[in-house]
Amino acid sequence: MNRALRYATVGVIAVSLLAGGSAAAFAAPQDLHTPAPTVATAPATASLTAKASATTVKAWEQFRITGVAKGIKAGTKLTVQQKQGTKWVSLPAQTPVNSSGAYAVRVKLGLKGVNQLRMATGSTVSPVVSVTVR
After folding, report:
1. Residue range 97-123: mean pLDDT, rounded
2. What is the full DSSP assignment across 90-134?
3. What pTM, to 2 d.p., does this model score?
4. What is the enclosing helix (H) or strand (E) of 26?
5. What is the Cα–Cα distance from 32 to 29, expressed in whole angstroms?
6. What distance in Å separates the CA atoms of residue 33 and residue 115, rounded to the nearest whole number?
7. Banded pLDDT at 41 (limits 50, 70, 90)
8. In the chain, what is the straight-line distance between the N-terminal and C-terminal CA atoms, in Å?
9. 30-39, 43-52, 110-119: range with lowest mean pLDDT
10. Exposure of 78 by Cβ count < 10 A (0-12 exposed, 13-18 middle, 19+ buried)?
11. Nearest to 55, CA basis, from 103, 105, 117, 125
């Protein structure tokens, strides 16, 4: 019986300390001169657009891919990628992003048929652009 009384007393004291401490925390006056906490904004997600200057070209005829890079630092190199089978292969055609975020690259293709192309930098890729080579 004596042990049960001790446990009950300790339990009541613990509950009152917890309740009193949390009530004091909620009752504390707010300093009006303290600035409100700032909320960190997520970094802008990077994106690329792409547009080919022609949808049909002759083998090895030059065309351009142009677009805009958002959230990508000026000077960053963009690479032209071509879908070959199930893989995307980087072509030896690169261009930097200019200070306004725009880019343009000259491309020549010899693989006849419909070629699927995209621009890439790191894990950021543009939508696919199709160019038919005759």
Report:
1. 97
2. EEEEEEE--TTSEEEEEEE--S-EEEEEEEEETTEEPPPEEEEE-
3. 0.67
4. helix 2-27
5. 9
6. 63
7. low
8. 98
9. 30-39
10. buried
11. 117
Calpha distance 51→112 (Å, rounded): 20
Per the CB < 8 A criterion, the answer to whether 100 and 66 are in contact is no
Confidence at residue 15, expressed as pLDDT on a 0 to 100 scale: 43
Contact criterion met (CB below 8 Å) for 61 and 108: yes
Tokens, residue 28: 């504390």
Span 84-113, average pLDDT: 96
Nearest alpha-carbon partner for 117 in 68, 94, 70, 84: 84
Place of tokens 């309740």: 19
